[in-house]
Here is the input.
Amino acid sequence: MSTSGVRVRIAPSPTGEPHVGTAYIALFNYLFAKKHGGEFILRIEDTDATRSTREFEQKVLDALRWCGLEWKEGPDVGGPYGPYRQSDRKDMYQPFAQELLDKGHAFRCFCTPERLEKMREEQRANGKPPGYDGLCLRYSAEEVTAKMDAGEASVIRMKIPTEGACEFNDGVYGDVSIPWSSVDMQVLIKADGMPTYHMANVIDDHLMKITHVARGEEWLASVPKHILLYRYFGWDEPKFMHLSLMRNADKSKLSKRKNPTSISYYSALGYLPEALMNFLGLFFIQIAEGEELLSMEELADKFDPDNLSKAGAIFDIQKLDWLNGRWLREKLTPEEFIARTIEWASENSRLTEGLKLAQSRISKLGELPNLGGFLLSSDVGLTPASFGGLKTSPAETLEIINTVQADFEKMPEWTTESIDQELRAVADKLGKKLRVVTPPLFIAMSGSQRSLPLFDSMALLGRSVVRQRLKIAATVVASMVGAEK
Here is the structure.
């Protein structure tokens, strides 16, 4: 155990590219552990079996390690309270679910998805918030047994008090009171036997002896469910701290639909992990102007969890650029700068694999920058003129880009082969030849109609960079469509 008994964790879901918001929450927990002589734990919450993949899990581990974070226990390093992957803990949750049923704190729900959807539609039509109506609570023990014996599918839901409110003290928001009437009868165990986030989260935190739970403020409304579970089991609850969401400059929630949010995107563009952590860490400390450039050790020294702001943490890309520039100029020796540059260019084998692709397409080495420079560029300089020579109209080009963008989001794997298959499927969906679909994508990726092989290039650029370049291309082409009207 830690010298202070403090144990905190970060528990990301491996359902997509690791988000900078994950790094933000992870950094807080990491600094909190360092400040208190405690331990920082990494747990993978993969209860969403339809979206969780081992590829994304590895990306989470790689991204957080790139950020400079180290964990005492986790799926890759083990520890005394493992396994640290929820899918590997599946059988551990069933006895706790049965305990809740035996104590009368939970019940079996046999409602079909169709019945639940109809219920929600009626509630919305009547201006009521959607929530379970308690139908299955009224079944007798004999009726429940009969349904189970008949093989009817069921989930396990938790019971919620009908009167009063859940009152607790949050490390950021202070005293909070949430009426029980606003809390839904949460599903705890799904029909496939897997726990939901809420059930697994509470049990895992208890078994792993987590003392403080620091997470995003979007989970504040879920605290009553979690506190109720702790009370149902007779366990001490941890101290909760709900951090303000990261937001864009316009105060909207930071999301990949508006701006690049993947950690891998910032790594690919050449941001230093020290600069990114410096930038995120400034949300948790109080400093005077001129003291902004801070290492992880300096952030930990100035970290003050008792003086946190409830105002949104603004992800100001200009400030990040400014900090990153200062790190490059002021914190690296020339030798370190050269080493970092080579390391960055070689990330995901972009440089070596890009050179291999270029070898058969050049007559002299001096052509390399123009042909393959887009693999290392932060901006390929797209303008309406970039798309001017295409045979497709701006409207057709926009349809291609938007369709590719949407379908790429659903891809579980990111390889040359999977990109090839997906783009051929897009061509079929649009009723076009592949040779019609690919030219706009060449331009979106490289800024040129002459480039390296498209599928290989997209694989080397990575999912997050491709997503952002398609987004920029869509904006440029959309302006051309608007100009035509």
